[in-house]
Amino acid sequence: MSMADNLRKVAGLTRRGHHRVDLSHPARSPLGSSVVNCVLYRDGVRQPGTETVEEAVHQVRRHGHDFVWLGLHEPTETEFARVADLFDLHPLAVEDAVLAHQRPKLEQYGDVLFAVFKTVTYVEHEQLTSTSEVVDTGEIMVFTGPDFVVTVRHGRHGSLGPLREDLEAEAERLAQGPSVVLHAIADHVVDDYVTVADAVQEDIDAVETEVFSPKAGHTVDAGRIYQLKRELLELKRVVVPLGRPLERLSTQPLRAIDPAIRAYFRDVADHQARVTDQITGFDALIDSILQAHLAQVAVAQNDDARKITAWAAIIAVPTMVCGVYGMNFDHMPELHWRFGYPLVLGVIATACFLLHRGFKRNGWL
User: Keywords, A to Z (predicted)?
Assistant: First the structure.
């Protein structure tokens, strides 16, 4: 089945029942392709479906005030080739959109702006273990042109269906054009960063409480701390690189961005900067927790070594005395005295008692 046929099926479904086809799971589209949705907007209002995406583009370019929003999920190179030709997308951006695994970035190719956002979601777990997955990441690529928005999503989460519905409820806002969609996606992605960062903080607080609990000692599993640090590093790779693209969107004049929308990107950039600072603080805090745990382990091992040394010293007294009297000499102190045996036992007991008392007083026992 061709790409045009798939898009025709999407358009027909929209025209008849106004149903939205969206992907919130890793499976392919119910239509049997990567197409999620194809909608024509006129003055911010969703229009009845057209027969083909080519017809939608023709209508948009005939009226001059409309735009098309085409959404795809993990398209193949063949599936995306027709879209790339129709919207005249740059081959380098097309390659990035198909292959995925890109850093967050912003690139401009003529009148088309290509943005890559890393999405993230918090993985629920009853208890953090040394193998727990804390964050799951994905990607959203956005092509923004004068009269179109093409979104390409990779990963098991990050569905844009709810976002599309929110935008359609604000027709006046959506009428400002494709740059509004780009801002809404950026804002949606960064809001998820805030949510995930708050959830990760709860995991860090739980580990910190356990490490510094008086009863914890060296029983805390260091693997849990290392796993949390690895997951935090994954979150850091998602959030931090987005700072520069958002700075460009909020400060530099770009042909694909309405100047009236630029101020809204500054708000998104502020939120991203706050999450970046929060994650940096988490990283330092986890390092401190890990160092504190290792210090606790070292102190506990030192206490164990001192106890062993103290008991060895106490046991050495009867060992030495008994060893002396175990030698086969005729002339031993008090050897033939009736009270010699009790006397030696009393000396051993007294010496052991004094040593135990001294070690106890010094905190070795």
Answer: Cell membrane, Ion transport, Magnesium, Membrane, Transmembrane, Transmembrane helix, Transport
